[in-house]
Design a protein that fits this description.
Blueprint lengths: L2 H24 L49 H12 L1 H7 L5 H11 L21 E4 L2 E4 L4 H13 L2 H21 L7 H13 L9 E3 L17 E2 L2 H4 L3 H8 L2 H18 L13
Antiparallel strand pairs: 1-2, 2-3, 3-4
Helix pairs in contact: 2-3, 2-6, 4-6, 5-10, 7-10
Length: about 280
């Protein structure tokens, strides 16, 4: 290639470069394409932990049974046999309601920490006779003779071997636990409730003076046939106590002390903690 051709090509390239320079300066500058928007991943909170099962405060060592326990619906005959071995046939007939015994025990234990414990569901026969009061001036007080009605039951409670009674409780415990869950406390431990109720009863005050009572005014023409069932404590603080505590107050000072002593013995064999305060009515 000769010298003139190289010069011509060079001139053309220079012209192209100069034209491109001026075109680029005059042409509108295009903004760079926007960076792609990356959506932030939504923050997902970790799943809430499943609620923990309620801790068992007072585990019970269930006693092994030589034969499988019957279903709770057909347990009365088995229960009667076991209780008769503990108390004797005569005292079972006199004091114990065998029909639906397991459910009655569970319902009554639970009710003793509440405002009412209906006698119709008690596992024992109510004390015979009527509630006695005396007049002191313009006030009514619980009669000192009233305690005599309860002495046979207190004597029965004291005569029962505590270790044997607790052994029977442990033998029947699977039935008590099943009854407690069907009562409306699935997953909760009946022995915990029993210890809680015992603690509540042990907190019952021991009166130093006769307790004043009163009959509420009955509105309407129909009067109650057994007004002695309606007596309530004149002291609002005593009237607010749980039903089991009010029962202990009604049985009389000495009977209350004796029954509490028995409760302390039972508690030592079924509880794993020392006596502590509890919430009345919880369960």
């Amino acid at each position: 290639m000769n010298k003139q051709l190289w010069v011509g090509l060079g001139s053309v390239l220079i012209l192209i470069a100069i034209g491109a320079y001026f075109w680029l300066r005059q042409a509108p500058q295009q903004p760079p394409p926007p960076a792609p928007v990356v959506s932030a991943a939504p923050i997902v909170a970790p799943p809430a932990p499943a609620p923990a099962e309620p801790a068992i405060r007072h585990p019970i060592d269930e006693a092994p049974s030589a034969t499988p326990l019957p279903p709770i619906e057909r347990a009365d005959a088995f229960v009667k046999e076991q209780i008769t071995g503990l108390l004797g046939a005569k005292r079972v007939k006199t004091h114990v309601r065998i029909e639906n015994f397991v459910r009655s025990v569970v319902a009554t234990v639970d009710n003793l920490a509440r405002s009412l414990a209906p006698p119709r569901v008690w596992p024992i026969h109510p004390t015979p006779g009527r509630f006695n009061v005396e007049t002191a001036g313009n006030e009514r007080i619980i009669s000192s003779k009233n305690a005599a009605r309860y002495r046979p039951f207190v004597a029965l409670a004291e005569s029962v071997d505590t270790a044997r009674a607790v052994a029977l409780y442990k033998l029947l415990y699977p039935l008590f636990q099943r009854a407690y869950e069907t009562l409306g406390y699935p997953g909760k431990h009946f022995n915990d409730r029993l210890v809680e109720v015992i603690d509540l009863l042990l907190e019952t005050p021991i009166p130093s003076t006769p307790l004043k009572v009163e009959l509420p005014e009955v509105q309407g023409p129909i009067k109650p046939s057994r007004p002695w069932l309606l007596y309530r404590f004149s002291d609002p603080a005593l009237e607010r106590l749980a039903s089991g505590q009010k029962i202990l107050l009604r049985v009389g000072r000495e009977n209350e002390k004796r029954l509490k002593a028995k409760l302390v013995q039972i508690r030592k064999l079924i509880a794993t903690e020392q006596v502590g305060r509890r919430t009345p009515g919880s369960g």
